[in-house]
Amino acid sequence: MSTTRPCSPGDRGPEPSGAPGASDGGAPGAEASQGGAATVASGSPGGRQVRRLSFDGASGVVPLARDFARQALYAWAWLPAATADQRAAAEDVLLVVSELVTNACLHAEGPDGMVLSCDNKVIRVEVSDRGAGQPAPRTPHRAGRPGGHGMFIVQRLCLDWGVVRTPDVAGKTVWAELGAPA
Fold first, then answer.
1. Mind giving me the DSSP string for 37-86?
2. Mean pLDDT value of segment 45-59
3. Which range of residues forms the domain containing residue 62?
4. Would you say residue 22 lies in a domain?
5. Is residue 138 part of a domain?
6. How far is the C-alpha of 117 from the C-alpha of 43, rounded, in Å?
7. What's the domain count of the chain?
8. Is 168 exposed, middle or buried (0-12, 13-18, 19+ CB in 10 A)?
9. What is the CATH number of the domain that holds 142?
10. What gap in Å lies between CA 126 and CA 105, rounded to an integer?
11. Is 0.85 surpassed by the pTM of this model?
12. What is the pLDDT of residues 137-156, one digit of tens each?
């Protein structure tokens, strides 16, 4: 389902600056390489954990984003997976991360940052860029043709997704939410 709501139904929205659990600027366990800067916040209200990655000056941003997401999945005990369903859920998160970051590379000027947040039921992926375009699944979807499948994949794998724009600020944040494995 495509939407332009800033948050999915029932979402508490982003943590305000300075709120408990907001990024503290360098907690251990958040590693980034090739120029990216990572921060971790845990113990947020409602048990939500948050990790942020800045792509400033980074090269190889898609593998960097996947590695960062994989580290978060290990920290949040989504990996190592005990069952095939849990493994599939973790792989879905990594695929959505890849698709959103790749779209920012192809259709914007590259991603600015990524935020991953997780509670016991949902993981949220947010990728910010400076692009003006509106992401949407290609219609009609042509499964046999190369390219143009990214947002179709995101739509199929996610509980919900959407776009957030801030007035008078260039760019957007594309977000997607996936359910935790059973």
1. EEEEE-S-GGG-EEEEEE-TT-SSHHHHHHHHHHHHHHHTT-SS-SSHHH
2. 89
3. 29-179
4. no
5. yes
6. 11
7. 1
8. exposed
9. 3.30.565.10
10. 14
11. no
12. 777 667 777 777 889 899 99
